[in-house]
Amino acid sequence: MDRTSRRTGLIAVKCGMTAVWDKWGRRIPITVLWADDNQVVQVKTVDHEGFNALQVGCGQKKPKQLSIPELGHFRSKGVPIKRKLKEFQVSEDALLPVGTALTVRHFVPGQFLDVTGVSIGKGFQGPMKRWGFAGMPASHGASLSHRSHGATGGRKSPGKVFKNKKMAGQMGNRKATVFCVWVYKVEPQRDLIWVKGQVPGCKGNFVYIRDSWNKPPDVSLTPFPTHFAPPDEDPATLEALIADVGAEDPFQVDE
């Protein structure tokens, strides 16, 4: 693996948020992500599709819940039926064969991830809640317009309201990405990834996680193209991997 290599990502289910305290007594807000049975379903190459990518599947689904073309897609690849599919573009040296299992050990504690999901929908909201506007004057000369956005600039010239003008409208329920999310803990026994802070979406929603673009992982510590478990390894006997929080007490004050 080098700096130009790009690994595949994983599909995870957002389980919710909690908090932990490290060895220094520092509180860390945690979001728990469940990477449920990720597996490579399809391989796309430059020769056939014009780009290199891996289609990854997550979870399980009953055959009666799929249409005939969808069911034929899984049967032609010889993989189990998956609940969710997602395509990740990768570099040529990171391609994996169909059927390869992707576990949470694909990532290592201490690295940074980019997490993409659908944000929580908040319905139709005004400009103050949606964009953080200060509002109109609260006392004199603002009759019944305290929370309005004011003029939008559309008189004779230019005679219209420009696109992307910040106004009232639908808030949330759209694709959002949180960059540089720190991995605190990896649990191979339950396929859980503990990350610091919040990620988009409600509990039970699917999110897509992959190596951070702004803070790439250490090439000497990251398994490439993924982690291959030994055939005789039992995931139930594996211990959780926790990130190093440093050897210096953050609360120590020099007198």
From TrEMBL:
Keywords in alphabetical order: Mitochondrion, Ribonucleoprotein, Ribosomal protein, Transit peptide
A Gene Ontology BP annotation from the UniProt entry: translation
PROSITE patterns to which the protein is assigned, alphabetical: RIBOSOMAL_L3 (PS00474)
Intracellular or extracellular location(s): Mitochondrion
GO cellular component, one term: mitochondrial large ribosomal subunit
Gene3D superfamilies per the UniProt record, alphabetical: 3.30.160.810, Translation factors
Highest taxon above the source species: Eukaryota
Region (Disordered): 139-160
GO MF, one annotated term: structural constituent of ribosome
Main subcellular localisation: mitochondrion
Family: Belongs to the universal ribosomal protein uL3 family.
Protein name (Swiss-Prot/TrEMBL): Large ribosomal subunit protein uL3m
Organism: Selaginella moellendorffii (Spikemoss)
